[in-house]
Design brief:
Rossmann fold, four-stranded parallel sheet, 2 domains, Glutaredoxin, alpha/beta, six-stranded mixed sheet
């Protein structure tokens, strides 16, 4: 294993893997697994290339905010690089892209500004440009920035040539920003002339294969969508315009293959189940194009397909629509084939949060003081890692309700089983053995389910108003989305 100075140094050198169970047996089909980059996509390369080029040129000043419009993967890569290099980052993203992406970017410290889906990619670009101009931020311009293509010429293309010293017959990719396409294709054409460059795009939105060419605007923001653009499920693969870098790369392209959205989804799933390789919708789409190439290739041909990212980035998209959360009938049958740990019978061992204890006078006094203390009218007796407790905490945080938390399994309550003694005293006081228990103004509201019901019926809000506890009732019909997933389903039936 290598040692690296920072996470940025781990970008690149992704593996090429033979695909053996799919496609014709008389050709060699390989995939380049870009999910092995640290943030899970090929766009990590772009992020490093653009930021380092801007640093060298002086276009990006120390501490300056970086901004970009992206469907997500570029933003995640930029968030990684900016976190390491100390740049604030703002990402502009249309609202219809997967929720996982915006959460990952925010987790890495970026701010995410959403734009209406109806305004498509142009809306994202326009908003990013406006914000950059208004605030003096550095706009990375991924669709036209030559540093995007350059980093692929230095890394991705070199890796491919090294991995195929005996030659490569076809290289298959989508066009996306155009950076991977231009950067790799020009090197392959120069150093491996036999390699045919194959570009894939959605069959219902064949903008790249169209004879209609829209000139790239000087300000980098297209003023109109390509007339053949139609919405499609392949996120990040083909925006409503043809980027400048992709337009530049046309001279290297030998073939354009249209791919259906349904085939892209199906092949992503098939690749996972038959080869153990997890990729997103764009990976399934590019694989579909590669299989079309395989069908017409000469025996013995070597074909390399780019897999841009990981499938985990698509959990909230149609890619995972048919993947259940709860056990299927077959899985229930497997569970029932042996007697232990089943949901249709009482637990063999009652759950415990620690050593059982008897209530002590000190514990009884603690419980009374906590419940009756006017300085903390809202009290939650909780377990730190209880998912019902998380639901209550999320509700109170969303509404701005101040409360005292008594985490009975927390470190502060572990000495001499202090938490167990408090819980025993609490059960004696309330007559309720379960946790969490929520008290408002000295009165027991109940466990998490009863607290949510009290909020849904307005009883909890009335009690808070009577006590002068401030809150914002902004949850609306999203109330039960704060509960654990399986409890949400129970609440809706």
């Amino acid at each position: 294993m290598a040692r690296f100075e920072d996470i940025i140094a781990t970008v690149g050198r992704t593996p090429v893997v033979r695909v053996r169970r799919l496609g014709p047996k008389d050709v060699e089909l390989y995939v380049k697994v870009e999910a092995r980059n640290p943030m899970g996509s090929v766009k990590d390369r772009l992020a490093v290339g653009i930021i380092e080029a801007a640093e060298r040129s002086g276009a990006l000043e120390p501490g300056q905010t970086v901004i970009e419009a992206t469907s997500g993967n570029t933003g995640i890569g930029l968030a990684m690089v900016c976190a390491r290099r100390g740049y604030p980052l703002v990402i502009v993203m249309a609202e219809n892209f997967s929720v996982e992406r915006r959460k990952i970017m925010r987790f890495l410290g970026a701010k995410v500004v959403l734009t209406p889906a109806a305004e498509k990619g142009m809306g994202m670009l326009r908003k990013a440009q406006e914000l950059a101009q208004a605030h003096g931020w550095f706009l990375t311009r991924q669709f036209e920035n030559e540093a995007n293509a350059d980093v692929h010429s230095r890394t991705t293309a070199v890796e491919i040539l090294e991995d195929f010293p005996d030659g490569l017959d076809y290289w298959v990719t989508g066009f996306g920003t155009g950076g991977t396409l231009k950067g790799v294709a020009r090197v392959l054409k120069a150093q491996s002339p036999r390699t045919k460059i194959v570009v894939c795009e959605p069959d219902n939105s064949q903008t790249y294969g169209s004879a209609t060419r829209l000139p790239w605007p000087a300000d980098g923001v297209p003023k109109e969508s390509h007339p053949l653009f139609r919405p499609h499920p392949v996120q990040g693969w083909a925006p409503d315009f043809v980027p400048k870098l992709a337009e530049d790369a046309r001279r290297y392209v030998d073939q354009i293959v249209p791919v259906s959205g349904s085939e892209a989804l199906e092949l992503s799933r098939t690749l996972a189940m038959r080869e153990g390789i997890l990729t997103g919708i764009s990976g399934g789409a590019t694989l579909a194009g590669a299989l079309a190439v395989c069908a017409g290739a000469e025996p013995g041909s070597r074909i390399l397909c780019m897999l841009p990212d990981t499938g985990e980035r698509y959990l909230s998209t149609p890619l995972f629509d048919n993947v259940p959360v709860d056990m299927t009938d077959d899985e229930v049958a497997i569970s029932h084939s042996t007697p232990s740990a089943r949901f249709d019978k009482a637990p063999d061992v009652p759950p415990s949060t620690g050593e059982s204890a008897a209530p002590t006078a000190e514990a009884r006094a603690f419980v009374r003081e906590a419940i009756e203390n006017p300085e903390h009218p809202v009290v939650v007796f909780a377990l730190t890692w209880c998912e019902f407790t998380w639901g209550v905490r999320k509700l109170f945080k969303r509404c701005g309700i101040a409360y005292r938390a008594v985490d009975l399994d927390g470190v502060a309550y572990q000495n001499d089983n202090w938490g167990g003694k408090i819980r025993a005293a609490l059960t004696e006081y309330s007559g309720v053995p379960t946790i969490p228990q929520i008290f408002v103004g000295g009165r027991l509201v109940g466990d998490a389910t009863k607290t949510f019901a009290a909020f849904a019926e307005g009883r909890l809000q009335t009690s808070l108003k009577e006590l002068g506890v401030s809150f914002e009732d902004t949850v609306g019909d999203k109330l039960y989305s704060l509960m654990p997933g399986w409890a949400q389903r129970s609440s809706s039936t």
